[in-house]
Amino acid sequence: MSMLSDLRFRMRGLFQSRETEAELEDELRFHFENEVEKHSKEGLPKEEARRRARLDFGGQSQVAEDCREARGTSLLTSLLQDIRYAWRQLRANPAFAVVMILTLGLSIGANSAIFSVIEGVLIQSLPYSHADRLAYLYLSDKNFPKFALNPFDFRDYRARNKSFESMAGMTRGDLQLSGGSSRPLMLHGFRVTAGYFEMLGVSPALGHGFERKAELPGNGYEVVLSNRIWRSRFGASPQIIGQRVMLNDQPYTVVGIMPAGMQHPGNFYQPLPYGQDVDVWYPFTFDGNPARRGSHFLEGIGRLKPGVTLAEADAEMNSIQAELAREYPVDAGWQVHAISLDSEVVGSSREMLLILLGAVGMVLLIACANAANLLLSRAATRRREIAIRVALGARRSRVIRQLLTESLVMAFVGGALGLAVAWGGVRALVSLLPVGFPRADEIHISGAVFAFTFLITTAAGLLFGLVPAVQSSRSDPRQGLHEGGRTTKGGDGSSRLRNALVVAEVSLACALLVGAGLMLRTFLNLLHLNPGFQQQHVLTASVFLPEVQYKSPASIAYFYDELMGNLRALPGVQAAGAGTDVPFSGYDENLGGFTIEGKVPPPDQEFHGRYHVATPGYFSALGIPLLSGRFFSEADKAGSPSVVILNHTMAKRYWGDKDPVGSRIDFVEDHPTGKAWVTVVGVVGDVKDKPSSPDAEPAFWWPSLQQPWAFPEMSVVMRANADPGSLAEELRDEVKRLDPSLAVANVRQLDQIVESSIATPRFAFVLVGLFAGLAILLAAIGIYGVIAYSVSQRTAEFGLRMALGAQRADVLRLVLRQAAWLTTGGIAIGVILAVALGQLLKDLVYGVSLTDPATILAAVAIAAVIAVVACLVPARRATGVNPVIALRAE
Amino acid sequence: MTSLDLPQGTLDLLILRTLLAGPQHGWAISERVQQVSGNVLRIQQGSLYPALHRLERRGWVKAKWGVSDNNRRAKYYDLTRSGQRQLQDETESWGKLISAVALVLESE
Question: What's the Cα-to-Cα distance from A231 to each of A173, A227, A676, rounded to whole Å?
Answer without folding.
Answer: 21, 6, 51
